[in-house]
Write a structure and sequence with these properties.
There is one protein chain. The longest helix has 24 residues. It contains 11 helices and 14 strands. Among the domains are: 89 residues, Spore Coat Polysaccharide Biosynthesis Protein SpsA, Chain A (Alpha-Beta Complex), CATH 3.90.550; 88 residues. The two termini are 36 Å apart. The strands form 3 sheets. Strands 1, 2, 3, 4, 5, 6, 11, 12 and 13 form a 9-stranded mixed beta sheet that branches. Strands 8-7-14 form a 3-stranded mixed beta sheet, with no helix packed on it. A two-stranded antiparallel ribbon has the order 9-10. It is of the alpha/beta class.
Length: 343
């Protein structure tokens, strides 16, 4: 068994593979590492380019796009390693990026996943949206990060350069202990894309594991490389999958109250999209709720399996208030300005 498998799930990302994959190879070759590209039914010649030019990269090909969760599940079933690194194709790694995460995982067996500090490829002194310096959620399921609340990305001045327990690690670049990944059921393919890593990390917490941010490791993320941040389909997935996340994982005593309040908050989000003239995004919020209701049967079964593992054991990492209120009403624009931090 190899120690580490870096798995890049690719869908029509030829330009990113050409730009970033050579550095992944260069900066990861000294750690008993397998580098793998799992191609999700690309039509842009991505798989052919890897096969023709990179004989030292394992290539797994799928005939169709299985989404982020389904694609990774299928790929990781074909790989034996102690650790998996799920790496987006639009991420630029840096020299020495693997070592801090490997060292920490090796000496802390209770850690199921960790992530590096994720900075913006275009604004290299700012955090990037998808993960920043580690992810959190509030009591209503809204996500935020050390270094990013909603669309406000902080400048990196070293303010989050301490190793810290977090609630979720980013699917843009996350190291996962293979044993924990398998024991917790892997990624949920019904998410297709977005928030499936948060769902997985919630299950990690339910089984007594930790999730950690390792800022000594640094990568740069383009972001929106597969699906634009302004995409209405992304809006649909984010709202629907957030409801999936809550229904599957909330403790029983909170479930119905939180879901009721989320309906109200999502209704306000729909109105806000309408007022901004973003009618497709507003429609996507409504479609997301329909998608949630149509999935209730499956969600109930998944919830039963999740609850058998126990309820979240690190609930101090969940902000016990509304990040929407903190950001829009109280004006807390940075993680460090939250009156009660989720740490």
């Amino acid at each position: 068994m190899i120690k580490t498998a870096i798995v890049i799930l690719n869908w029509n990302g030829l330009s990113f593979l050409k730009l970033f994959l050579p550095q992944v190879i260069e900066y990861s070759s000294d750690h008993e590492t397998l580098i793998c590209v799992a191609d999700n039914g690309s039509t842009d010649g991505s798989a052919e380019w890897v096969a023709d030019n990179l004989s030292n990269v394992k290539l797994i090909r799928f005939e169709k796009n299985h989404g982020f969760a389904g694609g990774y599940n299928l790929a990781l079933q074909q790989i034996e390693a102690m650790y998996f690194v799920l790496l987006n194709s639009d991420v630029q790694v840096t020299q020495g990026w693997l070592r801090p995460m490997l060292d920490y995982m090796g000496t802390n067996p209770d850690v199921a996943s960790c992530q590096p500090k994720i900075l913006s490829y275009d604004r290299r002194d700012h955090f990037e949206y998808a993960g920043a310096a580690g992810g959190f959620i509030d009591k209503y399921g809204f996500t935020f990060c050390r270094g990013r609340i909603f669309d406000n990305m902080e400048k990196d001045t070293g303010q989050y350069d301490t190793i810290s327990d977090i609630f979720w690690s980013s699917g843009a670049c996350m190291m996962v202990r293979a044993e924990a990944f398998t024991a917790c059921g892997g990624l949920d393919p019904d998410y297709f894309a977005h928030m499936e890593e948060i769902d997985l990390c919630w299950r990690f917490h339910n089984t007594g594991h930790r999730v950690v941010s390792i800022p000594g490791s640094v990568v740069y993320h383009v972001g929106g490389g597969t699906l634009s941040y302004s995409s209405s389909f992304k809006t649909y997935l984010n709202f629907r999958n957030n409801l999936f996340l809550l229904h599957k994982n909330l403790p029983e005593k909170q479930l119905f109250k939180i879901l009721f309040l989320r309906r109200i908050l999502d209704g306000l989000a729909l109105i806000r999209f309408m007022l901004k003239g973003q009618f497709r995004n507003a429609l996507s919020v409504g479609r997301a709720h329909l998608g949630y209701y149509n999935s209730l049967g499956k969600l109930r079964e998944k919830r039963k399996r999740t609850m058998k593992r126990g309820e979240v054991q690190n609930d101090d990492l969940i902000l016990n208030k509304s990040i929407v209120f903190e950001f829009y009403i109280k004006g807390c624009k940075t993680f460090s300005s939250l009156s009660t931090k989720a740490t």
